[in-house]
Amino acid sequence: MPHILIVEDEAAIADTLIFALQGEGFTTTWLSLGAAALEHQRMTPADLIILDIGLPDISGFETCKQLRRFSEVPVMFLSARDGEIDRIVGLEIGADDYVVKPFSPREVAARVRAILKRMAPRGVNESSSAVFQVDIDRVQISYRGQPLGLTRHEFRLLQCLLEQPERVFSREQLLDALGVAADAGYERSIDSHIKSLRAKLRLVAASAEPIQTHRGLGYSYSPGNS
Ligand code: CA
Q1: Alpha carbon of 8 to ligand 1 centroid (Å)
Q2: Where is the domain boundary, 65, 87, 119?
Q3: How many whole angstroms from 66 Cα to the centroid of ligand 1?
Q4: CATH at 172
């Protein structure tokens, strides 16, 4: 059972989350301080962290920043105000999703499930003969046996494409895979991430073109060109 760490100082909100998540079969731990959450994650890593932004000790932003020094665990922010969303998106703070209070606990549980599904390793990429090998735990993808030095966003993009070979993903869908809101004017940043991703792939195989561009549509992974 995936274990979810809830970091929220309001007991009533934490209670509704615990109830909804346990109803979906998740196990939960509830803490109300950022520092305690960091300590907990070091000792007993959860599979996903739900992190309130307004905490009594250090903010959720700061907690996430410190967390990212040692963990790539998925983080979903709880935000009290719409204005805080801009910071989450704008700072690329390493969040996988966010919800604004008041939220539906059932929707949060559904999104948690979606994030964990996105992170789950797929059998097709585990085969040792595969051109691409995805190591979820180490946030590492190897191409033709060579580990790629990918940024977090490049990793997510490539992982998303590899999961469904030949499927054409729109920029909006890829933004979704990154956990970035599609209306944030970020679509063009997908192109720059793809560009740097391709440059890294070419260092391994100069003439292969595993990521295909579909004009006006988006991108796909083509195993035949790998
Ligand atoms: Ca709070």
Answers
A1: 6
A2: 119
A3: 18
A4: 1.10.10.10
Residue 30, beta-bridge partner list = 6
Domain that holds residue 46: 3-119
> What separation in Å is there between the alpha carbon of 64 and the centre of ligand 1?
15
57 lies in a domain? yes
Q: Which two tokens stand for residue 125?
A: 């990429």
Distance 27 CA to ligand 1 centre (A): 22
Instruction: State the distance from the centre of ligand 1 to the C-alpha of 86, rounded, in angstroms.
Output: 18
Place of tokens 């740097």: 196
Alpha helices in 71-170 (DSSP H): 82-90, 105-119, 152-163
Q: Is the pTM of this model over 0.70?
A: no
Q: Which of 82-86, 159-163, 182-186, 203-207 has the lowest mean pLDDT?
A: 182-186
pLDDT of residue 129: 55
d(CA 210, ligand 1 centre) in Å? 45
Asked if residue 213 has pLDDT above 70, the reply is yes
- Domain boundary among the residues 119, 141, 167 is at 119
